[in-house]
Amino acid sequence: MEQLRFSTLDTAGVLLCLFAILVRFTVTSEQEGENLSGLSTNPDKDIFVVRENGTTCLMVEFAVRFTVPFDVLALNGIDLITENAYLALPRGADIEGKCGSQDAHIHISWNDNAYTLRIYFVKEISGKGRVWKISKVQFVYDTSEKTHFLNPYNPGKHTASTHHLSALETPAGRSYVCEAKQTLTLISSDHQKGVTVAISDVQIQPFDINSDFMFSEAYKCITDQREQLEETLPLILGFILGLIIVITLSVYHFHLKLTAATQSQLPCDRSMYNNM
User: Which tens digits make up the pLDDT trace of 110-148?
Assistant: First the structure.
């Protein structure tokens, strides 16, 4: 009997230890989101960070604006017409997220969860090697929220989503940077309306962040590269044209000096040619 009691206590101790280890593992893997938008000098730009074990594992900086179509009753009280609500991602939004080795996401909510922006990331191997990209974007909005929706017909919550998205493809270990405005069209559960999401001043990195609160090496978007080329190309062409002009003037000046030197060596008295 005493031996059985000892075994039971021993088993309970082992289970207690296992439970403590499990709790400790859960705590150490806890992830939290931080809104650092107040640090941005641009009032339209938001900064969100997801941290794991006290270390940054996902960072997002961008300015986001939404154009949301919704139905209202026409003056005749019968027909429906479509209006647009225009709203921006505010600085006081709440954030939560998840970091993983192959997938990650960030959820940004505001106005008591009347609005939620969800962005999903994946890391994979493509023809360019190991890359990460945005695989899905969702926007949840409530047309009964009166700040942006005036007299909506049949108000309620709707979800707008992308389909088969593959955006912002970036080499693994680098952050995506793009100043130019980029737009996504999300299809809404509200009669398949198209919700437009305009993103600008972007810098994002959902994986492989080496330093706390610090992005890795930037990977510029094609639009920025093209705009930079368009800005520098006139300068390059101007420099080449100026160089051609300088060379031409130098050659012309050398030709004049050479011609003058040749003429100075010729006899001035024409009678001297008679003996030649």
Answer: 999 999 999 999 999 988 799 999 999 999 999 999 999
Q: Which residues of 201-233 are buried (b: 16+ CB within 10 A; e: fewer)?
A: bbbbbbbebeeeeebbeebebeeeeeeeeeeee
Q: Note the Cα 236 to chain centre separation in Å.
A: 30
Residue type, 275: N
Residue 118 CA to residue 91 CA, distance in Å, equals 16
The residue written with tokens 């409530």 in the block is: 142
Please state, in angstroms and rounded to a whole number, the distance separating the CA atoms of residues 213 and 49: 8
Tokens of 205: 């990195």
Tokens of 105: 């996401």
Q: pLDDT tens for residues 153-171? A: 999 999 999 988 999 999 9
Task: Judge contact between 139 and 120, C-beta under 8 A.
Answer: no
DSSP the chain: -HHHHHHHHHHHHHHHHHHHHHHHHHHHT-EEEEE-GGG-SSTT-EEEEEEETTEEEEEEEEEEEEEEEEEEE-TTSSSEEEEEEEEE--TT-EEEEE--SSEEEEEEEETTTTEEEEEEEEEEEETTEEEEEEEEEEEEEETT-TTT--S-SS--EEEEE-SS--EEEEETTSEEEE-S-EEEEEEETTTT-EEEEEEEEEEEE-S---BTTB--SEEE-HHHHHHHHHHHHHHHHHHHHHHHHHHHHHHHHHHHHHHHHHHHHS-S-GGGGGG-
Cβ distance 92 to 82 under 8 Å? no
Total residues found in the chain within this entry:
276
Write down the pLDDT at residue 257. Answer: 72
